[in-house]
Amino acid sequence: MDADGVRERAGDLPTEPGVYQFRAGEATLYVGKALDLRDRVRSYADPRSGRILGMVERADRIEFAVTDTETQALLLEANLIKRLRPRYNVRLKDDKSYPLVAFSDHEVPRIEVTRDPEAGAVAYGPFTDVGRVETVVKAVREVYGLRGCSDHKYEGRDRPCLDYEMGICSAPCTGEISPEAYAEDVAAARRFFEGEAGVLADPLRRRMETAAEANEFERAANLRDRLEAVETFHGEGGEAVSDRSDDRTVDVLAAAVEGEAARVARLHSERGQLVDRTRHQLDAAAVADAAERGGASGEGGGADADANTPAAVLAAFLAQYYAEREFPDAVLLAEQPADPDVVDWLEREGVGVRVPGAGREAKLVELALKNARKRGGRDDSVGALGERLGISRPDRIEGFDVSHAQGTAVVGSDVCFVDGSAETADYRRKKLTERNDDYANMRELIRWRAERALAGEDDRPDPDLLLIDGGEGQLGAARDALAETGWDVPAVALAKAEELVVTPTGTRRWDDDAPELHLLQRVRDEAHRFAVAYHQTVRDEVKTVLDDVPGVGPETRRRLLRRFGSVENVRDASRDDLTDVDGVGDATADTLRERL
């Protein structure tokens, strides 16, 4: 739509409170609320940013709904944003609890990192740094040999699995350790999570020193990194103040803004105990656009309000977060939100909203602010990557890989990392044209992603960086697709063999210990894992000669192919290797060896 079209449409709208939508075909581009629909929509005839100008030009119509009050409009707007996920609105991401470390309720407990512990499990946390938690759990398993396998894999074994050979499990499943000794190891591991750091730090330090004395410097370096994670583990914010006399439910919120990225940290307290911590990502540019439009029409803090501030971010967050959640008794904020309408709405619902100045509540706000400013790693690998590549901070990275078997079962993966951590809800995958051409496959995969983004068909925000699994050829194919579609997103590649970073201006070898390289490796490896897993699923759907072997059903066939990779490898496997696969007994193993 052009400016005249916006003015003409605005003239048809009522001067009442309500919600409006900018639409393009079947897609909703933007949802907004207004005290006066006509006046608000008319303001889009003169957009204040290039981002909103692009949205208006892409729209082909404006739809609206009238409400009785502005509060109703506020809630309707928030619910529509949640449901429709418009591309140009502020959208909450990472809306989930941080992980816990759980010991299962079994005679032989397993240890795991989880967001949803099983009934009866003993759980510790939550923790804010996922990478550190995983590193610490690996250290626990290496020192104490605790099992991490599922019950299905644990039961009925007659010999230890690979974890035992790697030294990270003491194999209680086959009696390599007595139940009494295993219980002692579990108790020691639990003491660490209860605050006794020395039970894990001391043995790790001894192993590190022994490795260094034996000139095993790579192992010593790995142990050093684990030791550092262990020693800093209990300083992550668990010292939050406790007050058993406080019987309220309280949310504590603080926001931080960095460039076009914004984070809101939420601490949740029940009966004086801190029981949950979450962190949410928002698009600060979209917050700024919304605040500028609010100022233009006399709402949302005034025309002179600074749009790109934590106060504006808190205002955008509060309405969406509480629109479909149970209200707490109180909300403590690091500062007043830019939109007083949101505060008025919460107070009318019986929520106490304030900015504390001292005491326990102020300490909780300080902790929330610390979490909001935290970027997720000790070396800020995301910031370092942006500086190394000469681009803006790439908070959102998408990684791509292709997997196939000589041109059959061709699939592509698209994984997503936000602020250095995997965002599994935003993973995507696609079946590709059957052909044995890695470059053409990558070109098709990137073109698919670009075309969906440009058409507004992908409900995810545009990434800040694309990472291609491969070398110069794969990157060239990806850049061809970007040029053909006109999607303007930076792209680099990471080659596996020598870990070379391939950019449009040349190939670089980064230091092995560079945090920005480690970030690229995590994204690349996850894209590869996700592609291979999907390829195996697609491949397993194809009928093979294994289906003709008596005793081999679809599930056993899948297990055989996942274990050995191909029918040829199944044919060459030993009898013992075959019987190690769940569902393959002695008779079936003999039949397989005879038939294949």
UniProtKB/TrEMBL annotation:
The lineage of its organism: Archaea, Methanobacteriati, Methanobacteriota, Stenosarchaea group, Halobacteria. Residues 313-482 form the UvrC family homology region profile domain. Keywords: Cytoplasm, DNA damage, DNA excision, DNA repair, Excision nuclease, SOS response. CDD domains: GIY-YIG_UvrC_Cho (cd10434). One of its GO terms (biological process) is SOS response. HAMAP family: UvrC (MF_00203). It comes from Halorubrum californiense DSM 19288. Residues 15-90 form the GIY-YIG domain. This is UvrABC system protein C. Its main location: cytoplasm. It holds the Pfam family HHH_5.
